[in-house]
Amino acid sequence: MNARVIDGKAMAAELRTELAALVDDMPVRPGLRVIIVGDNPASRAYVRTKTRNAAEVGMDGSLIEMPVATTTGELLAEIERLNADPATHGILVQLPLPEQIDETVVLDAIDPAKDVDGFHPLNVGRLFSAGREIADDLLVPCTPYGCLHMLKKVLGEDALGGMNAVIVGRSNIVGKPMAALLLSVDCTVTIAHSRTRALPEICREADILVAAVGRAEMVRGEWIKHGATVIDVGINRVSGVYGKSHLVGDVHFASASEVAGAITPVPGGVGPMTVACLLRNTLVAAKALTS
Ligand code: NDP
Q1: Are 168 and 260 members of one domain?
Q2: Is 111 a catalytic residue?
Q3: What is the mean pLDDT of residues 233-256?
Q4: Would you call 50 a catalytic residue per the annotation?
Q5: Which ligand 1 atom sits closest to the C-alpha of 213?
Q6: Pair (82, 182) in one structural domain
Q7: Minimal-distance CA residue to ligand 1 atom 31
Q8: What count of Cα atoms within 13 Å lies in the side-chain half-sphere of residue 287?
Q9: Among 142, 176, 194, which residue has the most ligand 1 atoms within 8 Å of its CB, making it the best to mutate?
């Protein structure tokens, strides 16, 4: 293996330490409310990590659990309550939602000032019209923000300009905001998706390759340019020997790390940074709401 393994866990711990000091200086305790509807085991594990990490940095993080049969109206009523609650500075609705719930209506109902996932159309618009300056008070989607943070740490802020960045995946959660963030640091950005032709060739042009596909180990070593920095956003549960399952990314780690200059592991790469950036957004929201 040649590639440097990017330690997302350590970087997230470092960011949490910085955030804890800033939380300490706040006149109020930032309040994060995480709503989970239903009992998806993976979602339950994610929300527990979010509220636990919030508490670790001194925030008031709490979980609101709603039954799987919750209607759109019931969820909207809960969001309205939290929108009006002065002790709540950040609201996150864990996705995916059960199919009877209209996700767009729900995400649009969150007060944009408390939208710590950065998915409200107003915050999306602000991100895409930010140009080369992403303001410190912008609520940016956590996963791509965490990826950018790691890229800056690994490559250096000034080195990103002019680099070819290829993002595989065009979701609103990862791919599209990742493109906006990489443009803001002057990368030349290509977004690929399921209809992209000659994907391996396009990936081989990338100095920075971000995989956010949801297909286990799809990106192979031979798709990667020598020395490229690879950010693997994917989280895929696959079954292994004796029926035991484990997590892998969208990148085939063993072959990719023979070629890449640096690569994030799964788990322990993007995931922890995503949660740390959620806490950053909660602090940003609390500051704006209490100033
Ligand atoms: P989506 O399913 O919303 O989007 C997947 C994207 O990948 C789509 O744009 C799709 O294209 C594209 N795609 C699918 N198949 C192919 C293919 N064969 N070739 C090229 N492109 C393809 O997923 P998300 O963006 O929400 O998540 C992606 C992955 O990241 C998942 O594994 C998810 O679990 C993980 N994730 C991890 C997070 C973390 O904190 N680490 C946070 C969020 C997500 P098209 O648009 O044409 O359908």
Answers
A1: yes
A2: no
A3: 94
A4: yes
A5: 7
A6: no
A7: 214
A8: 15
A9: 194
